[in-house]
Input
Amino acid sequence: MRLILTGMIVAVAIVAGAIAVVDATQVISRTPRQLGEQSELVVRGKVVDVRSFWNDKRTKIYTTTRIAVDESYKGSGPGSVDLIQMGGVVDNVKVTVHGALQWRTGEEVLLFLESTDGRSYHVSGFSQGKFNIKRNARTGEA
Output
């Protein structure tokens, strides 16, 4: 009986721990209004550079993306902003982070941004704060 009770307690502890881990990785959906309220910067611009690199200890790969800002809707309007996120490809090593954004040089984007360290930013709402801008091929209108 004692062995069964101990096994049940261990099983409950494992399930409770798994639930805590799952809850910790949950991304809460945000409306565009919430993204705007919670972001330090809201900008429209073009991707001009995408570069992946190892951290100093060579244990993680990060990708930085530079955006040339054409228009700023919230926050001070710097000429460009640098974004950073985990994952990328360096030295034939690829690190994939589920839900991480993909960037292409030349793509035009509307971004809701939060500061990471005062110099770099990340996209608000994990990936919810990136909107690709498409242009009419005939008129050039966004």
Remarks:
- Residues 2-24 form the longest helix (23 residues).
- The chain has a mean pLDDT of 82.
- The two ends are 70 Å apart (CA to CA).
- The longest strand covers residues 41-54.
